[in-house]
Design goal:
heterodimer, A: mainly alpha, two-stranded antiparallel ribbon, 4 strands, about 0% strand, B: about 55 residues, elongated
């Protein structure tokens, strides 16, 4: 039979893999340094340094974007390009596309590193980058997709190995998630408003947010697991058939789980229940994958003790198992009622990103650097020190956040026999957990140090190796004879990547459509309340400052219908209150108190002093000082454009309101400034500063419905 | 009252459809994957990463 087959010679593009490996290490160090920095900022507010671009609210998005998209992104691209070529016995489709992909992705990272500290943010968690960068991401992702599928088409291996199925689901789903969630209307080159508002935006955002974890931090790395663990252990995956069940169950179930981020909010009950049930169901495929990975190591556990690659990968799988047990647990409504908005959640997130992603990437890097530079690892002892430093650091991190989370929750909800809050002042709960923030910062520092040890070890490994030689391989081209006679129809399907990709798309679209379409149509259900009015021009400007400073990262804006929350904050939130919120600002964490009904609770002067020196107003506060709000002039001139864009999005501003927006905003600012002068002797010139707009916005929050008598 | 109704707007067919679709799909791909006739093929496929030494 082979007489009719054509034997072809080819080489792999390993240079692009080397570049992605180097980028992974560099951006990984940056991401972890940022993580350590913001961890210390929570422990001591002075670490914010008093500069706008070094405050927590601006660095935290940079940390998450750097960790997810720069560190893990470069790692998954490098790992995929390495394994993809070998599993398909084909060089990457286009060297040019590979390089556009690499440099394009690095350009995106650099743009993020510049814009996020400058406060250029869309205000959507894990998707903060503004619209021009979003477009660039989409373009580069398409370049990646063409290169990826082009390689599959040129392959010399008929069967598409299961690792590539996971890659396909990543390529398809991330594109869908990114595009749908990023749709926004630009105001300027650096500012846009999401087309979604309120509860719609919340659902779309967390459908994206949760599935970014799923399809950027999980499925590609599971694919890499199915390649690198068999390679490193030199034995086939424990059960290939289980890997298939793992794949289809995971991609089908994962996409439904997003609403567990919105339990007890104004999201429809059926969507919350659906998200919870599918989150619990997700436990099964997750553990199926973990068991499959760990069982692949049967018979080679001795190597796990000595080989860095296997040691890191086995540990990563263990943490994967732990965090994928914890995730479904946290999505159960009664558990979520305790854990949501507390530090338990960052603890859970980091058990995944450090325990699973960092540990697994470390394993891949040790494997790749030794292979790509044709040498042995410089020091297994250093790798061992790195391993224990990272593990101890991570355990400190997770435990401190468990303790902090449970403490916060118990204190927030504690009520005495008379039905009063035991800790009515939120600051009491903050002060109590600051010691845990120190423990977390120390744990994070250990993880960062472990990374630096790896960086040095990999550098020394590469330095003593060589990458001059280009190996040439041979394999038969695919033709009609490369599939066995009498093969089933599905066997043929497995050789059709585009159809396979379409099926993967259908699998994720079913869940997405069922969850999202009814919510997109929710205008039919969420009737607008006459008492809820759009923000004034000045309040809108203040809201943009709120988004720019990342206030939503520490303050929520939604009150759950629980007795202790209603007692502490006021009436439970209603869907109709958020219909003009483009984007929504419910947040996901309460480092500080909820602000949904803070309007009118304190005087203008209180807010003025609080933004200037929070610790003088609230003893023990860990909030940064926002001194620049008092010197920066407020940009009144952009208000007509902003309001016009909002009008296009459905906010009922009249043309007259838009035309008079500057005059109206100036008048409202003057009222606030006069109040500040009367009560604190503040010069009237303050009316032209940003702080006045922020005060106007804060004072408006929750007042329309909060003070109204609505049946 | 009105808001409570909005929160619960009646779409029971949605989760039921999701459940049915998932159960059917799961049954189909599990049956297909564990079909006896496919066993040899998948055992062979598991060796794809190992069958060449393209390092």
């Amino acid at each position: 039979m082979n007489k009719t087959r054509r034997l072809e010679s080819f080489s792999y593009d390993d240079q692009i893999v080397r570049w992605f490996v180097i980028a992974t290490v560099i951006w990984g160090a940056v991401a972890m340094l940022l993580g350590v920095t913001i961890a210390f900022q929570l422990a001591d507010w002075r670490v914010n340094l008093g500069l706008p671009w070094t405050t927590f609210g601006r660095l935290r998005p940079l940390h998450t974007n750097a960790a997810v998209f720069a560190f893990c992104g470069n790692a998954l691209f490098g790992g995929i390009y390495y394994s993809h070529q070998r599993l398909l016995k084909a060089r990457l489709f286009s060297d040019v596309l590979s390089r556009i992909h690499f440099w394009g992705w690095q350009a995106i990272i650099v743009l993020a590193a510049v814009t996020l500290p400058l406060g250029i943010s869309s205000g959507k968690e894990y998707a903060e980058l503004e619209w021009p960068i979003d477009i660039l991401i989409a373009v580069i992702w398409v370049v990646f997709a063409v290169n990826f599928f082009g390689t599959i088409i040129r392959r010399r291996e008929r069967h598409i190995y299961v690792a590539i199925w996971f890659y396909i689901s990543t390529v398809i789903t991330v594109a869908v998630l990114h595009i749908v969630n990023s749709i926004a209307l630009p105001v300027s080159l650096t500012k846009s408003y999401s087309v979604y508002s309120g509860v719609q935006d919340a659902l779309v955002q967390w459908w994206y947010g949760h599935n970014a974890v799923a399809f950027f931090l999980t499925t590609p790395f599971l694919g890499l697991m199915y390649y690198f663990i068999p390679k490193a252990a030199n034995r086939p995956v424990y059960s290939y058939r289980l890997s298939i069940i793992h794949f289809w169950s995971l991609v089908f179930i994962y996409i439904w789980a997003g609403p567990h981020h919105l339990l007890y909010t104004t999201l429809p009950e059926w969507a919350q229940t659906l998200g919870m049930v599918f989150s619990v169901a997700l436990w099964m495929p997750s553990w199926g994958g973990m068991i499959n990975g760990l069982m692949t190591l049967r018979g080679v556990w001795g190597k796990v003790r000595t080989e860095p690659t296997l040691r890191f990968m086995a540990t990563a799988l263990t943490f994967y198992g732990m965090s994928t047990f914890e995730g479904p647990l946290l999505s159960i409504k009664s558990v979520n009622a305790i854990a949501h908005f507390t530090d338990w959640i960052p603890g859970h997130v980091h058990s995944g990103t450090i325990g699973w992603n960092y540990m697994f990437i470390a394993g891949i890097l040790y494997y790749l650097v030794s292979k790509l530079w044709n040498t042995e690892i410089y020091s297994k002892r250093l790798a061992s020190i790195q391993f224990w430093t990272a593990t101890i650091g991570l355990v400190l991190y997770i435990i401190s956040m468990w303790v902090a989370g449970v403490t916060q929750s118990l204190m927030w909800s504690a009520m005495d026999e008379a039905g009063r809050l035991v800790y009515p002042n939120f600051i009491e709960t903050v002060v109590r957990i600051v010691p845990m923030y120190w423990v977390r910062a120390v744990g994070g520092t250990l993880v960062f140090v472990s990374f630096l040890i790896m960086l040095y070890n990999l550098y020394k490994t590469a330095k003593k190796g060589s990458c001059d030689t280009v190996e040439v391989y041979e394999a038969y081209a695919l033709d009609a004879t490369s599939i066995e006679a009498g093969a089933t129809k599905h066997r043929s399907l497995e050789g059709m990547p585009m159809i396979f990709a379409v099926l993967s798309l259908v699998a994720i679209l079913v869940g997405s459509a069922i969850e999202i379409v009814p919510s997109l149509l929710s205008n039919n259900y969420v009737e607008r309340m006459s008492v809820v009015k759009p923000y004034t021009g000045l309040e809108l400007a203040g809201r943009d400052i709120y988004i720019r400073e990342g206030c939503y990262l520490c303050h929520s804006q939604t009150i759950r219908p629980m007795t202790h929350e209603v007692l502490r904050y006021g009436k439970a939130s209603e869907a109709a209150e958020f219909v003009y919120d483009h984007p929504f600002q419910w947040g996901s964490k309460r480092t500080g108190p909820d602000l949904a009904r803070v309007g009118g609770k304190y005087s203008n002067m209180w807010h003025y002093r609080h933004f200037l020196k929070p610790q003088e107003v609230t003893a023990g506060s860990i909030m940064p000082r926002y001194t620049w709000l008092f010197s920066r002039g407020l940009d009144y001139t952009s208000l007509p454009k902003k309001m016009a864009v909002m009008q296009t999005l459905g906010v009922p501003y009249t043309t007259e309101e838009i035309d008079n927006s500057v005059a109206s905003a100036t008048a409202q600012a003057n009222v606030i400034a006069q109040d500040l002068q009367a009560n604190g002797g503040v010069p009237l010139e303050i009316q032209n500063k940003e702080v006045v707009a922020l005060i106007a916005y804060i004072q408006r929050l929750g007042t329309d419905y909060g003070k109204a008598e609505v049946p | 009252m009105k808001q409570a109704a909005l929160k619960n707007f009646d779409l029971t067919w949605v989760p039921i459809s999701g459940l049915v679709i998932f159960v059917v799909c799961f049954a189909v791909y599990t049956y297909w994957t564990y079909k006896k006739s496919n066993k040899d093929f998948y055992e062979k496929a598991a060796f794809i990463p190992l069958e060449n030494n393209h390092e």
